[in-house]
């Protein structure tokens, strides 16, 4: 179970509960782990609440998350973002060797995000990020927004930039990407290499339908959080912990065991560095 706490663009205008400061992100991480999350996906924000890829901010946020989780006697897998195409490519990976997370995002292609800007992931960057992940033994979470990205992954597997088995995170219903429906999932799943693991999230209104579809199709994980959806139901703003709690209950309804952080490491083949 992954909790994506704030993302790059969720604002206080969209949700009063979105964590923006380092202390808020750390507190939300603890609340989500207590609720059943085994992975926390982290973006960081500057003092104005804007998305940032500054290494010093990652150091502050991750330091506080690790300290808060440890103080609560808990365990969690940290998954740090590398998204942020307006920043130089070196900046997008600079925090990885400093913080040595167990996972990081890997977006295997570019797209016209929400028909408003280019979500840019150049071939040179993807090769660099793949090399960094292999060197540091960080597991790339391969985020699939559109079908063509699977072809890119296949190419990088053949080239040795990525190593199997891969872990895929389907992020469906981003405008400009694949819609969040059963047809999309039915198209994507048969194309995953044997031995792969996969998780799923839907953006906005497709959040619950994609959780249900993923559980029905045998997903290895669910992703929830205010990065992807701000409502518990129509007109009711959710907290990150509430979204995790609901996903845990859905998993239990269909007889799925909720993995601990240590079990998640075994399922995904992660190396714990710290």
TrEMBL record:
Keyword entries, A-Z: Metal-binding, Transferase, Zinc
Domain of life: Bacteria
UniProt KW Transferase keyword: yes
Cofactor entry: Zn(2+)
Protein name according to UniProt: 3-keto-5-aminohexanoate cleavage protein
């Amino acid at each position: 179970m992954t909790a994506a706490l704030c993302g790059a663009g969720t604002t206080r205008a969209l949700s009063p509960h979105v964590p923006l400061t380092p202390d808020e992100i750390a507190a939300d991480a603890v609340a989500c782990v207590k609720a059943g999350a085994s992975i926390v996906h982290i973006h960081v924000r500057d003092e104005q609440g804007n998305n940032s890829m500054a290494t010093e901010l990652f150091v502050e946020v991750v330091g506080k998350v690790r300290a808060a989780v440890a103080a609560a006697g808990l365990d969690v897998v940290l998954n740090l973002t590398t998204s942020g195409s307006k920043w130089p490519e070196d900046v997008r990976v600079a925090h990885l060797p400093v913080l040595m997370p167990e996972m990081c995002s890997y977006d295997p292609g570019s797209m016209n995000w929400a028909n408003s800007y280019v979500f840019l992931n150049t071939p040179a960057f993807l090769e660099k990020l793949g090399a960094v992940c292999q060197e540091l033994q960080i597991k790339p979470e391969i985020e699939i927004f559109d079908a063509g990205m699977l072809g890119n992954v296949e190419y990088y597997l053949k080239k040795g930039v990525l190593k199997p088995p891969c872990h895929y995170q389907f992020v469906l219903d981003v405008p400009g990407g694949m819609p969040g429906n059963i047809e999309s999932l039915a198209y994507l799943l048969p194309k995953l290499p044997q031995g792969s693991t996969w998780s799923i999230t839907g953006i906005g209104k497709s959040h619950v339908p994609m959780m249900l579809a993923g559980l029905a199709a045998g997903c290895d994980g669910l992703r929830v959080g205010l990065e992807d959806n701000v409502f518990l139901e129509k007109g009711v703003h959710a907290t990150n912990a509430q979204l995790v709690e609901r996903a845990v209950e859905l998993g239990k309804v269909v007889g799925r065991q909720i993995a601990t952080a240590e079990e998640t490491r075994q399922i995904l083949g992660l190396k714990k560095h710290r």
